[in-house]
Amino acid sequence: MLTSFMDSLLCCLTGTSTNVVAPVETSEAADGYEFVEVKPGRVLRIRHIIPDRPVVEEPVGQGGTVSCKRKITVYRNGQLFIENLGDKTMKELTNGSNGELEPNSTTDVELTDCSSSSPSPPKSGNGNGTNGNNGALETGEGGAATATGQPGQLQQPRKHKRKPKRTVVIDCERKISSCKGTHSDVALFFIHGVGGSLDIWGSQLDFFSRQGYEVIAPDLAGHGASSAPQIAAAYTFYALAEDIRLIFKRYAHKRNILIGHSYGVSFCTFLAHEYPEQIHKVVMINGGGPTALEPSLCSIFNLPTCVLHCLSPLLSWSFLKAGFARQGAKEKQLLKENNAFNVSSFVLRAMMSGQYWPEGDEVYHAEITVPILLVHGMYDKFVPVEEDQRMAEILLMAFLKVLDDGSHMIMMECPEAVNTLLHEFFLWEPETPPKKESKPRPETAKVRSDTIKATSETAKVRPLTANQSSSNGGIQATANSTAKK
């Protein structure tokens, strides 16, 4: 504690943080680590493992095609109206995982932090409160409907159809196939969150590299063994997202799978939205709800850097308490060895204050057509399970799995369960519906008449049989004999 106090005092006097980023003694190219300069002076550590695949690789399967049809309407009062127009295959995908949305169903939700609530729609003549086939609701200006046509009663206010602020229509087809380790066109990207490093994915990187997958895991700027610029603008969401985008373009294959944890889920969402053709599947582990990022004004991370450095032991203890379901010797060792929360006070403060991403709202998430697996630890105190449930409702193709024995660092607490769950999702592909047998078309009157005509013509030119030829020969012989007489 005295050392921490002296370091914080030195930090206040010099204006720089004395924290040292994670050690780099294992960061050698021979160990599967690479250093990539994404910008001048901005170097990221990457763990890149290319497994030894067999000479004869297994061919990629046919997979299944999913029709992604959705209409998203945003109204001026902040209400989000989603209409799913999927087919039977889409229904089978969503059953039991995304609220059991039926085909041609509608989802009516409110945007987060909406200041005004939507008035309740009056009941129409059919009693379903909808207008037309798209299910758009109509509301009166005064809210509740009143009776009309009778003297002495209040007249019903005139109904006005709400004008949407923005409408987004998604109509595409996605081919989803099984991604095996023997497929050379598959790459796995692992992205960590605030305060962590690529070391938190140690169990996953070892497991999937043994299965034959090519894995890529970067250290974010200021984390792990990556460079730590001493400027707050280097840790905004847009700066970090640009780093991840450059890393993705450098190592991407034809079919890429993104696995993100906590804050890293936002970067996975960004890539899935910007590169839908290259992103095949996404895994979001304790990522939170589909809300736009905005830094909190009343937060402990707004304190000066020297104060945060003085409080670093308390912050580490709080992270252990909230990030792990148990706080035993095993969890303390995992926290220390895997650099799960080992970052300088300056970087921590800049990361928390730089989480500004207004574009990543619910509409942004609703536009994503990539199949997504949501993994949530039951005892997570950072991210409530309701936020992941909200995410599953907004996403087009989402599967939510809640693990009972883990918390925020579920991939470190339950590595076997997480690895099995992720591997099953990688191998999953939708079933292709059987082709319908084509029935013969009924013959029309014209076709029947043509058939009868062709049959009669064929009968006219039919060759003679043996009896007919013999009888004809006898008649001809008699005629000749008669002529001779």
Describe this structure in words.
With 485 residues, this protein is of the alpha/beta class. Helices cover 33% and strands 19% of the residues. It is built from 15 helices and 14 strands. It has an eight-stranded mixed β-sheet with strand order 1-2-10-9-11-12-13-14, with helices on both faces. Strands 5-4-3-8 form a four-stranded antiparallel β-sheet. Strand 11, helix 5 and strand 12 form a beta-alpha-beta unit. Helix 3 packs across helix 13. The chain is globular. The protein starts with a helix and ends with a helix. The N terminus and C terminus are likely disordered.
What topology does this entry show?
Elements: H1 2-14, E1 33-39, E2 42-49, E3 64-75, E4 79-84, H2 88-94, E5 106-110, E6 139-140, E7 159-160, E8 164-176, E9 186-191, H3 202-210, E10 214-218, H4 237-251, E11 255-261, H5 264-274, E12 279-285, H6 305-310, H7 312-323, H8 329-337, H9 345-353, H10 362-366, E13 372-377, H11 385-394, E14 398-403, H12 410-413, H13 415-427, H14 445-460, H15 466-484
Parallel strand pairs: 9-10, 9-11, 11-12, 12-13, 13-14
Antiparallel strand pairs: 1-2, 2-10, 3-4, 3-8, 4-5, 6-7
